[in-house]
Amino acid sequence: METIRTHQSTFSTVSLLQIACHLPGTDNSSVESPVFLIDLASIPLQSIYQLIKDAFVSPHVLKLGFRFKQDLVYLSSTFYSHGCEPGFDRVEPFLDITSIDNNLQPRKPGRRLSKQTKSLATVCQEVLGISLSKELQCSDWSQHPLTEEQMQYAVVDAHCLIHIFEVFKAKVVIEGNSVESVTGLQLSHLDLGLKQIHDTQTKCVVSNLVKL
Fold this sequence. Notes:
Elements lengths: L13 E11 L6 E2 L2 E5 L9 H9 L3 E5 L3 H12 L13 E3 H8 L15 H8 L6 H4 L10 H28 L18 H7 L2 E9 L1
Helix pairs in contact: 3-6, 4-6
């Protein structure tokens, strides 16, 4: 997740919205994983506001994010600045990959969870064995159009969260671990364990943001 701010603005605004989906195929035996890169700076935001909001609040779609709470504030303020109602303050069901990773780390009995926060690049390297380009992460995301390399990075950046979630899900199912103390946004579905959420959700959406 890239965070880029200008000095001219007090609040960050979202320039690029990355949405990766994990959907059942038309024959119900396959999986489709499209990734959408939405350039919010080049389209009328009112034309897509309801569509994006419906996906974010749908109880039938599990949303995954990475340290996503503040990004939702930026996303809401971006749409609000273009005449839309604030609507991303309640996103559910929702899981933060950071919290899941933290809870699944081995620890000694009686010791609290570490408060040290890993970067997405670190989690990708540890869980998937792949590296996210630091050079592209720190590149100029305010330029338009984006380069082919930036678009490829944005796709991988969003899609890797689905793969990380699948690894965590398999770990829970195979090893019998439970994630009862997942913390993120304090919403109604966060009291479910990871396996319970897996058993009750059929669709998964990952959303990352590039902020300016």
